[in-house]
UniProtKB/TrEMBL annotation:
Residues 30-146 form the Ig-like domain. One of its GO terms (cellular component) is plasma membrane. This is Myelin protein zero like 3. It comes from Hippocampus comes (Tiger tail seahorse). It holds the Pfam family V-set. It is a single-pass type I membrane protein.
Length: 252
């Protein structure tokens, strides 16, 4: 009986160790981190660098989240944001005062926001999540950010102001000027169509003569000469006309 007990004693000590060895892999699961592969933004925009993770363990105070940046020109990545129970945004460097924490570890969110993006922010951003004991798998995810120059856009209010203060007044002025020109032209045409009876157009006498009209149109000067010549003829005829016989005798 002592021999049997001696044999079962070591088995009792070894059994818990074997059970822990076979059950340990089921207690530790790989963590998965994901983020968009590429992002595009315009200069001056606020860019949300999205990062989500899945873990079988509940987030604790040991959980850490890090964001690192590698410039587009190349070089080693530099960590600029850290989270451990609370957010630690960068206090100096390129991203100082421009990073906001948008994450919620209880919901599997580890996102941040980059304020007032510039062309110098082009590069690769890496999100790293550690949540012990889930430390295996792929705890990193990368996003390539491309910031482009901002294209000026015309707002509706700008177009309305332009129409009201520039185009509409200029259109009204143009219509007024066109109306004045048409009215002046019409007056000129009417004045040319009306002629006084005593007016003679240049070359009209010659045209009348060529047309076989023997009579010459009377002008003001012609009327004056006609009156003077008539008086002269009358006086001359009076002198040359012989007086009646009775009238001559009474003279003597």
């Amino acid at each position: 009986m002592r021999l049997h007990g001696h044999r079962n004693g070591p088995l009792k000590d070894v059994l818990p160790f074997h059970l822990f060895f076979f059950l340990a892999p089921s207690l530790v699961s790989p963590i998965t981190v994901s983020s968009p592969a590429e992002l595009q933004a315009s200069a001056g925009d606020t860019v949300t660098l999205s990062c989500t993770f899945t873990s079988t363990s509940r987030p604790t105070s040991k959980m850490t989240i890090d964001w690192s940046y590698r410039p587009q020109a190349g070089g080693p990545p530099q960590t600029f944001f850290h989270f451990s129970s609370r957010a630690f945004p960068p206090l100096e460097g390129q991203f100082s005062g421009r990073v906001q924490w948008r994450g919620s570890p209880a919901k599997g969110e580890a996102s941040i926001a980059l304020i007032n993006s510039t062309l110098n922010d082009n590069g690769t951003y890496t999100c790293s999540v550690r949540n012990p004991p889930d430390v295996h798998g792929n705890p990193n995810s990368h996003t390539v950010l491309t910031v482009m120059p901002k294209i000026p856009s015309v707002r509706f209010s700008d177009v309305a102001v332009l129409l009201f203060f520039v185009l509409i007044p200029s259109t009204i002025i143009t219509l007024i000027l066109i109306g004045q020109m048409l009215f002046t032209e019409r007056e000129r045409s009417q004045s040319k169509g009306y002629r006084s009876p005593i007016e003679v157009a240049e070359g009209e006498e010659y045209d009348n003569y060529r047309a076989g009209n023997p009579f010459k149109a009377a002008t003001c000067c012609d009327l004056a000469l006609t009156d003077s010549e008539s008086e002269f003829d009358y006086s001359h005829m009076k002198q040359n006309t012989p007086a009646p016989e009775g009238y001559a005798e009474s003279q003597f």
